[in-house]
Amino acid sequence: MINVGVIGAGAWGTALSIISAKGGANVILWSYDGESKTFEDVDIPNNIKITSDMEQLRNCDAWLFVTPAAYFRETVRKARDFYNNQPIIICTKGAESSTGDFMSEIIKKELPDAKEFGVLSGPQFAAEVARGVPTGSTLAGTPKALKVGKEILNQLYLNESDDIIGAEMCGVGKNAVALICGYNSIASKGENERAMIFTRAWNEVMHLGLANGAKMATFLDLCGIGDLFLSATSATSRNFAGGMSIARGEKPAGTVEGIFALHGLIHRAEKAGIDTPILKEMLKKLNI
Predict the structure, then answer these.
(1) Which of 25, 164, 186, 265 would give a disulfide with 20, using CB separation of 3.0 to 4.6 Å?
(2) Which residues make up the CATH 1.10.1040.10 domain(s) of the chain?
(3) Residues spanned by CATH 3.40.50.720 within the chain?
(4) Residue 39 contacts residue 98 (beta carbons within 8 Å)
């Protein structure tokens, strides 16, 4: 039986722990405070152990990183002393706002010994995953990471890919575009304007992705158009709901990754000399 360390016990980390445990893995779920998210009518399997002690992650066969982007580098640094060359599956969709770095780039810088890693990205609402609702995702990574990821996440429908940077660009981009779409669901003058801004914003994300070496096909996969459809059309999405709150002059609830994604994408685009007028205009309007 495979032993999995899940780092981050928010809604997504807890949901992944639940399906990993149901799929046959023993799970150690790390939480900074020793607590985890709960879901209505969903029991925590007995083969999940929740801990605030990172030492217990040392002997796991693989790690799933599910820490919010804003705290990702800090958490990787905390985990560094306990890393034992396990394959890593990055389950965080985001970019570091101050550098534009994607999570795989942070792993490379902060855990240079990590040679086998991958990215899980797709249309995934945590509560539905925890309840066992059929869910598909893209798993992009190195061969060993793909193998162990499929073993751990056997409760998901997975499309395999080697386009790590493309999967991450999709995950970051859809967060930003979902935030924009939520904002414009309140602030735009009509459906035509919403459609125009949505399309232009996603084109900017794709242009930036291709310039960074992503494959066009990735934007048509579950991590691309699949996740974009889910996040940019539903108020269940925290990013869409966050954009709605900002348009109403309210403070968004919880962590809204789209805010960090906008900053990160623009930072990355400026370094690459790529113009992103829609992303920049929305950042100005959002006043964040």
Answers:
(1) 25
(2) 165-286
(3) 3-162
(4) no
Q: Tens of pLDDT along 191-238?
A: 999 999 999 999 999 999 999 999 999 999 999 999 999 999 999 999
Angle at 171 between CA 32 and CA 78, to 5 degrees: 25
**Spatial separation of the C-alpha atoms in residues 139 and 145, rounded to whole Å:** 9
- Within a 13 Å sphere around the CA of 5, how many CA atoms are in the beta-carbon half? 26
The residue to which tokens 């007995």 are assigned:
46
Pairing of strands 62-65, 26-30: unpaired
Residues that are catalytic: 174
Fold annotation for 3-162: Rossmann fold (3.40.50)
For the domain 165-286, what is the CATH superfamily, name and number? N-(1-d-carboxylethyl)-l-norvaline Dehydrogenase; domain 2 (1.10.1040.10)
φ/ψ of residue 2, rounded to 5 = -80, 140
**How do the residues of the chain divide into helix, strand and coil, expressed in percent and rounded to 5?**
50, 15, 35
Tokens found for residue 272: 């690459």
Q: How far apart are the C-alpha atoms of 52 and 56, rounded to whole Å?
A: 9
